[in-house]
User: Which sequence fits this backbone?
């Protein structure tokens, strides 16, 4: 293969202008064109008015497969699952066990407290009733995403757990996806992709139940459709704002250049807009990683895509590790890898990341598949204000309060005085009328 | 006062057509006009390009107050706070204590688990760094909203806790708001309202720091501005989708008609689009509540607004309590009041509500102010898929994993086989290259 390998030149942070610094950490612009927005809105309207027929027509148009029904029966799913190779089944079993164990440990507990005598407050967690799990299609089969969405939905015991994914040319899903879906006990499997699949989950069709929350990654049509349906009055909730994938590695002289390069490449291969950044206080390490990148890149099947992503990435020489840590906290990467002999002192300072990979033997791909953590993570700087997907995202919290007559006698003045301050008289009277009632006299003399 | 009191006629659920049933539970349409959307977008653009100057100009235009600076210094806030009447201070103190106690009890714990030998996974909670608390202005002072947003931000120890609220005619905020702000230890107080205040929090100005998440209720401009800024690339998160306030009461013959009427009125007085629903298996109770409503309404200062809200509300006769409970679960009210002698059997079946008020002596206004629960709740049916505001909303969750060389030796095949299934070679090589390295040989022989 002959390819013009494009690796960014290393830049010294201390010597960089503020413009250069901003450019080094800038993300690819995610412009949603008005045309795309309108196209997605039209697809949603079409699914809203025509239901299954719209979904089947759009699946024929965009996925090139003409189906009789969007449903893949659970019997058929189980049958296809059996065809998965033993190695793939074993890998899914192990990943499932780790993901299940880690998400089970996240199980929330209700809170109950008597805030004052006679005033009882509770916070309760209820599983979302109906969740929709979108699994992207395209060139590859993505059983890992089935596990990342399906396992927490299963632990939460969401009563409807509906999976939708674009069909392969046979009008089915891969054995690996079916095997993972069976492991997670999904309650329904449907065929469809893009904005039309999201619309079907949001609005329901003759075959597909409408859901309360939509989870899962996707292309720009899927992302825009999730945004649009979540903005509708009474629309479903969605998991996270989406963006291209990112990895930031902090490495010192203790790192293994080949390991660092392999991790940077594994992130870069996701797509041409993936972003990878290396921060190191060691010029020798940066040079060695650069060399390893060129060597490893040459032998990768997805070298073209990977090369494009690398071309817009950054290799940054920092003064010391403290500066690298500060830059990472500003950037707030989706994935953060620490390839240092001694990570402990830095971990308390590093919180702005979706997921952190500690030490030389924790490849980023470990978290993508099998350590147990979730791979649905905030990207595009959203690690500063959004959470990594976890079990809690499959629950709602609501509160319950119970006030005894005696409790109201004690708390009443507080409510009355605040309602008066806020000029809400009916609020005030709901208390005063109770306290002045003959029933209150009776009930407090019991 | 002469007013044409408009109370809805009671409807028997079993006799209602499906159209009538849908209408009884339908919510006021929340149409955002294209004009409002464009006006809000223009305001956001103006604040983005002109900063403080834009905010001051728009405050002069919409709030009728010409300010020198949008900042109200913390010294000034403390000085104004002192002017609050003793009764109001005492009420805020008591409400603060209850809200603080209940939100402290919600403190999350980090999770740590060895999912396999040598594979350590952690889920950690980090407070959001910078939060913006929007407090609506208008006719009344709303110290309760300061507490509902400020107390959890204080417990989480968000490092910047910025409050913004429209100025009163003196170019200040009320003593009660200032007193509550001081109690919650907010770090900055600013003057501004509407879309321009939301834009200032989202984008920052010369005076106002940009924040990571915006909390708080507001009118249609505020709501639309929150939606728009949260959709921007790298924009702030927001708390909840907004809608008009709602109360659903389930009452049986054990209820006190005057108490039920008082609660329905306290919800209806919020605004003409507020919605109140009474469900009861007792025709006598519905008739008695109707009578009490007319009697109490006549003496309320906000009777006009309240009357409008009542006109579009529903009084529904159900077959039994089970039917009432099922209707409530379909409607998913923001506030749910159970005025029954025996609530216990029904509570496990009632989870789709923002907050539940149990028994005859738990007025809905108790939760608005002082029981300890939060009054920022999902409305408009969002109680089926969004959470009531709580301490967790002031944190982000992120994960950390550490794999030992031995752990990678055990987990490696799983990652390799899944990466092969997903055709992501660089992901695979990040593992195989480590396992085949001389460094791995050395590190596992230690």
Assistant:
């Amino acid at each position: 293969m002959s390819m013009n390998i494009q690796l960014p030149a290393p830049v010294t942070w201390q010597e960089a202008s503020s413009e250069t610094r901003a450019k080094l950490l800038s993300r690819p612009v995610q412009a949603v064109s008005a045309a795309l927005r309108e196209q997605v809105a039209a697809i949603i309207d079409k699914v809203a008015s025509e239901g299954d027929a719209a979904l089947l027509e759009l699946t024929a148009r965009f996925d090139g497969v003409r189906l009789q029904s969007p449903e893949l029966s659970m019997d058929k799913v189980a049958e296809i699952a059996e065809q998965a190779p033993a190695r793939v089944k074993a890998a899914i079993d192990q990943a499932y066990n780790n993901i299940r164990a880690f998400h089970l440990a996240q199980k929330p507990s209700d809170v109950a407290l008597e805030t004052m005598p006679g005033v009882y407050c509770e916070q309760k967690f209820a599983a979302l009733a109906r969740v929709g799990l979108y699994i992207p299609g395209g060139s590859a089969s993505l059983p890992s995403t089935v596990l990342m969405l399906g396992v927490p939905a299963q632990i939460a015991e969401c009563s409807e757990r509906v999976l939708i994914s674009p069909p392969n040319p046979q009008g089915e899903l891969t054995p690996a996806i079916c095997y993972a879906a069976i492991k997670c006990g999904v309650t329904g499997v449907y065929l469809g992709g893009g904005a039309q699949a999201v619309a079907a989950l949001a609005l329901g069709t003759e075959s597909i139940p409408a859901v309360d929350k939509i989870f899962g990654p996707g292309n720009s049509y899927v992302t825009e459709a999730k945004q649009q349906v979540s903005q509708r009055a009474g629309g479903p909730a969605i998991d996270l704002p989406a963006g291209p994938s990112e990895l930031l590695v902090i490495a010192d002289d203790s790192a293994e250049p080949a390991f660092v390069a392999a991790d940077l490449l594994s992130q870069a291969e996701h797509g041409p807009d993936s972003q990878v950044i290396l921060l190191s206080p060691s010029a020798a390490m940066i040079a060695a990683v650069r060399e390893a990148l060129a060597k490893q890149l040459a032998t990768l099947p997805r070298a073209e895509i990977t090369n494009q992503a690398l071309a817009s990435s950054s290799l940054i020489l920092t003064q010391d590790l403290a500066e690298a840590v500060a830059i990472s906290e500003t950037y707030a990467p989706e994935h953060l890898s620490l390839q240092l002999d001694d990570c402990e002192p830095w971990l308390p300072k590093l919180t702005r990341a979706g997921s952190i990979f500690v030490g030389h033997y924790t490849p980023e791909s470990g978290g993508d598949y099998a350590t147990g953590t979730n791979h649905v993570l905030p990207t595009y700087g959203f690690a500063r204000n959004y959470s990594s997907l976890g079990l809690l995202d499959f629950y709602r919290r609501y509160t319950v309060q119970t006030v005894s007559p005696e409790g109201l006698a004690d708390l009443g003045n507080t409510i009355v005085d605040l309602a008066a301050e806020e000029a809400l008289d009916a609020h005030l009277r709901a208390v005063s009328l109770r306290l002045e009632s003959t029933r209150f006299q009776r009930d407090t003399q019991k």
Notes: Residues 86-104 of chain B form the longest helix (19 residues). The domain at 34-109+127-241 of chain B is CATH 3.40.50.1980 (Rossmann fold).
